[in-house]
Every structure is written in structure tokens, then in C-alpha cells.
């Protein structure tokens, strides 16, 4: 039942928003078509503006992932992990989830398939992926769109918030699922 | 940012050389560059669509209505932004879209908010306090229902995938609130005016 309601909400959220906006605008006699195309014009410009920032960040991250640094880090933190009942498979996910959304989802599917449906690793990984946003991608896209290159403390806030999320996920999951 | 960029690239090459992955690292330059252009191009259509819809929402007064609705909160979070700024309505709509898991809509609307923040920003290359706050909140990724994760869990035959919703919501809320607090604390420490001091250079 609960799942059914959730599915309905996910399915209808987008259509509902679009219908509401268009209907209110029509009632207020806004020239829908003209307004739409006027706004949409910026889509191209904004997307192209992002490219240099995205290239800088994504090349750096893809080099970092290819270097094997994540595996070395996993290896070094092994003892630390067992102390907090964190399955070893989950560690790469902790690092990757801030760097790349598609890679995080890939690592998560991998954990889910190898560790199995009812393992603690799958549950912890699910909570970690579900509760995070790809920090570096968000920073590149949002700041890139307006041409900001001096990020001040925003990256530090993003990384620290990710760390808080990891710690919170470990604590919450160990109470609920262990 | 200069140090992070240097670190990512030089550190990766050194580690790659040590672990025998140097060829992979070199190849990843091309794949990384390719992916970023693919991402940007795949954004064009959906970006245009949502910016179009948002223009309609703005002209019909919906954005203004929502920004008035959340004024008590935005007054505290974005105290440097004038109360009548369009940015605040965009911020609210972007977070609603994010919370519902509509990332496709949230990004273009969030970028609109950034453009409005940029209008209030004195130094056009340096992030303002409002921008840092908005991005901090965004990177924490507040979401009500982790739809993609649930889909994967259903795919592997997980019996009760919705049981992860509550812990996920709790964790994402903690991260979200911590980002807000940290952004508020840091904005007092790193003022944008003193870009010449060595500490500030480190953070840039």
C-alpha cells in the first residue's frame, strides 16, 4: 500500500507541476508560447557555458578514479572499517558518491548484486547513495553556469556535509539494521 | 580551487605511475573530457524546457507567490539578498523539485537562482555568501524518496525496499542541516574582500 502511494507520487509529481503552472498562466492570460520560447532560449547558452568548468572537474575526477587511489585508500582504512562494522565493499562508495553520480550508482548496483538483497552492506550502501548528491558535479555546473571560479568555502562545506552524511548513515544503519 | 585542481591531476598521475595504471590515467583524460561535453549537450534540451516552463511560472506570479510563502526561512538563510529578488522563488522551486527527486527540473531552476544571485554579487568571479549557502544546501542532496535506489533494490529482489526511505531521509536531513550551519559559520570566517591573504588563496 505504502509503496503504491509512493509510486503514484513519483509518477504524478512532474505532470502535476507542469499542469499547475500552465493552467495558472492560462487563467492569468499569459502568452504561454511566447513566454516559453523566450525562457527556453537560454537553455543552449547556459549548457555551453558550463563546458569548461565541467571539463576541468570531470577530467580531474576521472583521472583520480583511474589512478587506483581509491583502492589504495580502501586498503589503508581496512582496520578502521571493521571497527565500525562497515563492510569493506561499501568504502569505495563513500568516496565515489561525492565524485560521480553514475559511478556511485554503478558501485551500488554492484554491491547489491554481490552482497545480496538482505545483507547489511546493501542496506548501508542504499542509504548512502540515496542521501547524497554528487558534490563536485553540482559545484561545477552551478558555478560554471554563472562563471564563478573562486569558490571560497563552498567546496569545503560540500565535502564536510558529505562526511557528516557518511557518519550519520553508519550510525543510523547500525542501529536499524544490525 | 587551484590547489584541488593541481592535486587531482598531479596526484592521480603519480599514483597511477606507482600502481602501474599510468596508461589508464592518460586514457581517462579523453574519457573525462568526452563525458563532460556529453553531459553538457544532453542538458541543452531539458534545460531549455524547464527554463521555458519557469519563465511562464515567473510571469504568471507563481514564483513570486512561492517566494513569499518561504520568506521566513529565506530571510535567515539568504539575509544579504533583497526580499523581492526573484532568486528566492527559484531557490524554493529548485528545492521542491529536488525533494521530489526531479533532478532534471531542479538543475535548470537552480541555475536560474544562481543567475539572480550573480546580479546581487559585487565581485563577478567570486562566490557570494548566498551562492555558497545555496550550493552547500544543494550538495547535501535533500530528497524525500530515493527513487533510483529503490528501483535497484526492487531489481535484485529486495523484499521491502521502502524500509530504506526513513533512514535515508534522516541521514539526508542531518547532512542538509549541517551544510546550512557550516555555511553560516564559514561565511563569517572567509570574507570575500580579503582575497589577497594566504589563507584565502588556499581556499580558492
Largest sheet of chain B: none
Gyration radius from CA atoms of chain B, angstroms: 20 Å
User: What's the number of structural domains of chain B?
Assistant: 1
If interface size is counted as residues with C-beta under 8 Å from the partner's C-beta, which chains form the largest one? Answer: A-B, 98 and 112 residues
What structural category characterises the helix and strand content of chain B?
Answer: mainly alpha
The largest sheet of chain A, given as strand count, sense and whether it forms a barrel, is: none
What share of the residues of chain A does DSSP label as strand, in percent?
under 5%
Fraction of residues in β-strands of chain B? under 5%
So what's the overall shape of chain B? globular
Structure summarized in a few sentences:
Chain A is an all-alpha fold and 178 residues long. Chain A is built from ten helices and no strands.
Q: Could you explain the architecture of this structure?
A:
Chain A has 2 domains: 1-40, no CATH class; 41-177, no CATH class. Chain A is globular. Chain A is 81% helix and 0% strand. Chain A is mainly alpha-helical and 178 residues long. With 204 residues, chain B is mainly alpha-helical. Chain B has one domain (46-193). Chain B has helices at residues 2-19, 22-59, 62-69, 71-77, 86-99, 103-120, 129-139, 147-155, 165-189, 198-203. In chain B, helix 7 runs antiparallel to helix 9 (165-189).
